[in-house]
Automatic annotation (TrEMBL):
It comes from Brassica campestris (Field mustard). Residues 45-394 form the Isopropylmalate dehydrogenase-like domain. This is 3-isopropylmalate dehydrogenase. One of its GO terms (biological process) is L-leucine biosynthetic process. InterPro entries: IsoCit/isopropylmalate_DH_CS (IPR019818), IsoPropMal-DH-like_dom (IPR024084), Isopropylmalate_DH (IPR004429). Its EC number is 1.1.1.85.
Length: 406
C-alpha cells in the first residue's frame, strides 16, 4: 500500500540517483530486519532514514511508538534502516547511496529524521548532506508537502504569541515540494561581461505542477473547514501570475471550498497578526518553506511539527520539519514529538491506518496532559524530561489507552 493522491497527473519513470554503492564500503552500513509474517496481521515495509545530529535519537524513539501503536491495531512492520546525509557521506562518500534510495523507493512508507551538521558545512554543494533530501523528494516525486500547524491547548504558553492570538490555531500548509526556484533551470554562479560574479536561480512552474498541488489543497481544505488561501507574489512574479490563474480556474470544481488569495509578504504578516484566520494554505516551494517555519513558532516549538510528503503513487516521505539541531545532538535534549507525530502521519496518509494514527496522536496529547515536557516546550510547573523519557511516556500512554478500551 502506498501514499496516493488523486490528481490528473501520470508518473514518469523514476530517475536513477547518482551515488556510490553501499555493497562495497569498508564498514557494514545498515541493519536489515526481515521478520516472518504473523497470521492475521497486515504487514508493511518501513524505510527508516535516521540521518544526522538528533535524527537517530528521535527516530529510535518514534520507531518504538510506531511499532507499538501498529501492533495494537494488528499491523506488523518490517523496518529497514539506511544511512543518508552526513552519515552516508562518512560511510561511502555520497549523501544518498543507491541502496538507501532503493530501500526507500521499495518500501511502503519512509520515516526520516534529519540531515546535516557542522562537520559537512564546507563540503562542495553536491557533497552536502542536504542534497540527500533534494534527491529523495525529487526522485520519489513527492510533490505535495503537508505541514500541519496546530496550537495544542497544553502548549499555548509555549507560543511566542499572546495567548488570545495563539489559542485555537489549527492550519494545514500545503507546500509544493518538487518545483519552483529550488529546482528551476537555469541556475548557477558565473562571471558576467563586466567580470563580476553573479548568482542566479529560476522560479519555474508548469501548469500541470500548479494544478496537481492545487487539487491536493482543495481536497485537503474540503476535509477540514472548507477554506483555502493561495499564497503567491502575483503582483511581481510571472510564475505567480500563472499560479493564481490556474488555482482560480480550478476553484469551480470545488464549489464547497472558499478560495482566497494573498501575497506572500502579507501572509507572513497575517500569520503573526491573526493566525486563526487560516484553515488551509497552498503555496509554492520557497514560500512554503519559509511560512511553515514561521507557523511552527506559533505552535511553540519546531520540535512539535510533523510533515508528510506525498506523490501520485509510491511511498510517502514522513519527517519532522526541524533540522538536525547539531547544538543539542547527542545530549538527549531533542523533542521527539514532531517525529512521533510524523509516524502518525505515516500511518494515516501513507498506509491508510487511521486508527493506529489516532492512537499515537492521543498518546502525545495524554503525555502532554500529564505535564511531561522537553526543554524546548518547558514551562514552570511541568516535568522536564529528555528525548528518551518523553518517548517512554508516549509509549506508556499508547499502552494505557489499550487497557482503557479493551
Ligand atoms: N529536513 C532536514 O533534515 C533539515 C531541515 C532544516 C535544516 N536542516 C539542517 O540541519 C542543520 C541545522 O539547521 P538549523 O540549526 O538551521 O535548524 P534546526 O531545525 O536543526 O535547529 C534550529 C533550532 O531549533 C532547535 N531544535 C530543532 N529541532 C528540535 C527538537 N526536535 N527539539 C528541540 N529543539 C530543536 C535546535 O536546537 C536549534 O536551536 C543544518 O545542517 C541544516 O541544513 C535539515
Amino acid at each position: 500500500m502506498a501514499a496516493a493522491l488523486q490528481t490528473n497527473t501520470r508518473l514518469n519513470p523514476i530517475n536513477v540517483v547518482p551515488g556510490r554503492s553501499l555493497t562495497n564500503p569498508s564498514r557494514a552500513p545498515c541493519r536489515v530486519r526481515c521478520a516472518a509474517a504473523s497470521p492475521g496481521k497486515k504487514r508493511f515495509n518501513i524505510a527508516l532514514l535516521p540521518g544526522d545530529g538528533i535524527g537517530p535519537e528521535v527516530i529510535s524513539v518514534a520507531k518504538n511508538v510506531l511499532q507499538q501503536a501498529g501492533s495494537l491495531e494488528g499491523l506488523e512492520f518490517n523496518f529497514q534502516e539506511m544511512p543518508v546525509g552526513g552519515a552516508a557521506l562518512d560511510l561511502v562518500g555520497v549523501p544518498l547511496p543507491e541502496e538507501s534510495f532503493a530501500a526507500a523507493k521499495q518500501s511502503d512508507a519512509i520515516l526520516l529524521g534529519a540531515i546535516g551538521g557542522y562537520k559537512w558545512d564546507n563540503n562542495e554543494k553536491h557533497l552536502r548532506p542536504e542534497m540527500a533530501l533534494f534527491y529523495l523528494r525529487r526522485d520519489l516525486k513527492v510533490f505535495a508537502n503537508l505541514r500541519p500547524a496546530t496550537v495544542l491547548p497544553q502548549l499555548v504558553d509555549a507560543s511566542t504569541l499572546k495567548r488570545e492570538v495563539a489559542e485555537g490555531v489549527d492550519m494545514m500548509i500545503v507546500r509544493e515540494l518538487t518545483g519552483g526556484i529550488y529546482f528551476g533551470e537555469p541556475r548557477g554562479i558565473k562571471t558576467n561581461e563586466n567580470g563580476e560574479e553573479v548568482g542566479f536561480n529560476t522560479e519555474f512552474y508548469a501548469a500541470h505542477e500548479i494544478d496537481r498541488i492545487a487539487r491536493v489543497a482543495f481536497e485537503t481544505a474540503r476535509k477540514r473547514r472548507g477554506k483555502l488561501c493561495s499564497v503567491d507574489k502575483a503582483n511581481v512574479l510571472d510564475a505567480s501570475i500563472l499560479w493564481r490563474r490556474r488555482v482560480t480556474a480550478l476553484a469551480s470544481e470545488y464549489p464547497d471550498v472558499e478560495l482566497t488569495h494573498m501575497y506572500v509578504d502579507n501572509a507572513a504578516m497575517q500569520l503573526i497578526r491573526d493566525p486563526k484566520q487560516f484553515d488551509t494554505i497552498v503555496t509554492n516551494n520557497i514560500f512554503g518553506d519559509i511560512l511553515s517555519d514561521e507557523a511552527s513558532m506559533i505552535t511553540g516549538s519546531i520540535g512539535m511539527l510533523p510533515s508528510a510528503s506525498l506523490g501520485v503513487s509510491g511511498p510517502g516521505l514522513f519527517e519532522p520539519i526541524h533540522g538536525s539541531a547539531p547544538d543539542i545532538a547527542g545530549q538527549d535534549k531533542a523533542n521527539p514529538l514532531a517525529t512521533i507525530l510524523s509516524a502518525a502521519m505515516l500511518l494515516k496518509y501513507g498506509l491508510g491506518e487511521e486508527k493506529a494514527a489516532k492512537r499515537i496522536e492521543d498518546a502525545v496529547l495524554d503525555t502532554l496532559n500529564k505535564g511531561f515536557r522537553t526543554g524546548d516546550i518547558y514551562s514552570p510547573g511541568n516535568k522536564l524530561v529528555g528525548c528518551k523519557e518523553m518517548g517512554e511516556e508516549v509509549l506508556k500512554s499508547v499502552d494505557s489507552k489499550v487497557t482503557a478500551t479493551v
